[in-house]
Amino acid sequence: MLKRLLIALGGTLVVLASAARAEVDPNYNVVLLTENFPPYNMAINGKNFAHEDNINGIAVDIVKEMFKRAGVKYNLTLRFPWDRIYKLALEKPGYGVFVTARLPEREQLFKWVGPIGPDDWVLLAQGDSPISLASLDEARSYRIGAYKGDAISEYLTDKGVEHSTSLRDQENARKLMAGQIDLWATGDPAGRYLAKQEGISGLKNVLRFDSAELYLALNKEMPDEIVAKLQAALDQMRAEGFVEKTLNSYL
Fold this sequence. Notes:
With about 250 residues, the protein is an alpha/beta fold. Helices cover about 35% and strands about 30% of the residues.
């Protein structure tokens, strides 16, 4: 009896040891999707469709280096709109999308690698606006614009704060200056960067109402060993100062 138990235990240890030494399949290819979300992800030509080297930004530079260090193959495409690429990553094995906020309601939907960078959630007004807010509740009486499908828009909906949405977040900068909305619910530094690209400066931050960390979200069928290797590579990059240096180079 003891002999049989020892044999069984030995077999279990062999299986566990093999799992611990699991290597990434060299032929496995991750399909990465992103959107125009400056300064984290951007098409170099400013359009809504781009491939590989025609995409740059803070997150793009970090993710490319992360996959290189992890030894994981990938192809990268920038597409529009966000709702579409988010759904693809949610439903298709081997797909991933970045950057996206890691929220409690999304936690079980993906496997996560990060954080890649911060995203403060703010309400911006025109520079000479008299609006002054102490809480999000005080913003309910104003016209608010947000980015359709974005985590900030979802947050406002969950809080019961009415708002309009635009298919491109920079449209909200133009709406704000045209007086079509009173407040722009957006991320920081993303909002300031987008406004600058539209020739708009001097916007007033009237409220910081939340914040999130931005991640690479991978389909739940993604092999655990790939997720682990990517996370280890990112942790090493952060320890070396690569992540901070990349952030600072765009801001």
